[in-house]
Design brief:
Helices cover 46% and strands 23% of the residues. It is α+β, with helices and mostly antiparallel strands. Helix 6 packs across helix 11, helix 7 packs across helix 8 and helix 9 crosses helix 11. The mean pLDDT is 89.
């Protein structure tokens, strides 16, 4: 097999593949003989169909398969001999004017780029840290109390206040016409907890059971209901029932109800602190990892393989359609979404993936089995039966591969933090948890 490699532009290459027709024909004949041994045709006994009939029926498809296989093998051998790392799938076309007795094909493809990472010592990274204080534990206890609150109906003369659960009927009209989702009966919501738009809550707050009220409500421009976004509706609301919330006492019964083994308030607070510290650790790691990746991208020089970027765009597009489908959007799979919307994100992902891979290769930052096991154990620790979660992770190669990817990113983060100029910044628990 003769191999010619040409450089087209940047990462694009072209290989000319030459295949002897005799080897193609020989393979076609061998496969047709195998087909003849098992093929069933009317008027012939199994295995007794004449080769001429088999060739007439299956010759074209078998020849197509053989050509595909032979060209694929020739391409793999050629790039291996040339020590090329291929990015994406090659575009292969038959070449005209081949020498007698040969078939020639041209394979155009991209190779993986050379990644140059500049001096990391000149990069600056802000490294976050945060602690779980008593106020954070108090706030979590209050959230847990709210999750277990009960409700009792208020007296007829009482007015609705924040924290109450109200039952209402409402009817909304735009330009005198009812709109989809604009009316409901026996609708419940909690006042003051942001479950409804502010104008709606403001109207209901202070009302008494049995009262009705009309009020205007301006839907925000970015409201999820496109038919009403940016428009003003006139609402009629009738308050049917007000229920006051009763929070459970913070005592041993409360601790036991939450599954705290020793059933004490101190034990509950210790459990909460442990879980919050785990969450803080993961969030801090995530933020610091993002800062490190930004620094890496800024210091890297490389050409991006178009095939890799296009594949990433396709993945992002598929993810967007899947999300639309989960939201109940009709025909989400056929939704027209412009691909260029995803191009910047796809380019960044590909760039980052190549840079991280080069850093891992050059500095042996691969995940060790011990690191993977430790990370799985940490993930499983917050569950009631950690051993079941551990088995769940180790029982699936894909899930374990995802853990391995996280561990590698953590290794890269620690490595880079040891090279760059680090500015330490302590943030409050509230600030950390409030940041996306």
């Amino acid at each position: 097999m003769a191999v010619t490699v040409e450089t087209l532009e940047k990462l694009e290459r072209k290989i000319t593949l030459s295949l002897p027709l005799t080897s193609i024909q020989s393979e076609v004949e061998n496969r047709l003989k195998k087909v003849a041994r098992t093929v069933k045709m009317d008027g012939f006994r199994p295995g007794k169909v004449p080769m001429s009939v088999v060739a007439q029926r299956y010759g074209y498809s078998v020849q197509y398969e053989v050509l595909n296989d032979k060209v694929g093998e020739a391409f793999a051998q050629a790039v291996n001999e040339a020590e090329l790392r291929v990015a994406g799938q090659p575009k292969i076309t038959e070449k005209e004017g081949a020498p007698e007795g040969e078939a020639q094909f041209e394979a155009v493809f991209e190779v993986m780029p050379e990644v140059k990472i500049g001096d990391l010592a000149s990069a600056e990274v802000e490294k976050l840290s945060a602690e779980v204080d008593e106020a954070a534990i108090d706030k979590t206890v209050e959230i847990l109390r709210k999750q277990r609150r009960t409700f009792a109906q208020r007296a007829q003369a009482d007015a609705a206040v924040d924290g109450d659960r109200v039952t209402v009927d409402f009817e909304g009209k735009i330009d005198g016409e009812l709109f989809a989702g604009g009316e409901a009966q026996d609708f419940q919501f909690l006042v003051g907890e942001g479950q409804m738009l502010k104008e709606f809550e403001d109207a209901v707050r202070g009302m008494k059971a049995g009262e009705s009220k009309t009020f205007p409500l301006a839907f925000p421009e970015d409201y999820h209901g496109k038919d009403v976004a940016g428009k003003t509706a006139d609402f009629l609301v009738t308050l049917k029932k007000i229920e006051a919330a009763k929070l459970p006492e913070i005592d041993e019964a409360f601790a036991k109800a939450l599954g705290v083994g020793e059933g004490t308030v101190d034990g509950l607070r210790a459990d909460i602190k442990k879980n919050l510290e785990r969450e803080v650790k993961f969030r801090v790691q995530g933020r610091n990892k993002q800062a490190v990746m930004d620094a890496l991208v800024s210091k890297a020089e490389l050409d991006l393989p178009k095939a890799s970027v296009q594949a990433e765009v396709a993945r992002l597009l598929e993810g967007a359609r899947a999300e639309l489908q989960q939201r109940g959007i009709k025909d989400a799979g056929k939704a027209e979404i412009p691909e260029d919307v995803f191009l910047p994100q796809a380019e960044r992902r590909v760039r980052l993936g190549l840079v991280v891979a080069e850093l891992v290769r050059a500095n042996d930052l691969h995940a060790t089995p011990e690191q993977i096991k430790a990370h799985v154990d940490e993930l499983a620790a917050s569950y009631e039966k950690p051993e079941d979660v551990t088995r769940w992770y180790f029982g699936d190669r894909q899930r374990l591969a995802e853990v391995e990817a996280v561990v590698i990113e953590n290794n890269v983060t620690e490595f880079v933090l040891g090279k760059v100029k680090v500015t330490d910044k302590n943030v409050s628990f509230e600030e950390l948890m409030g940041q996306a």
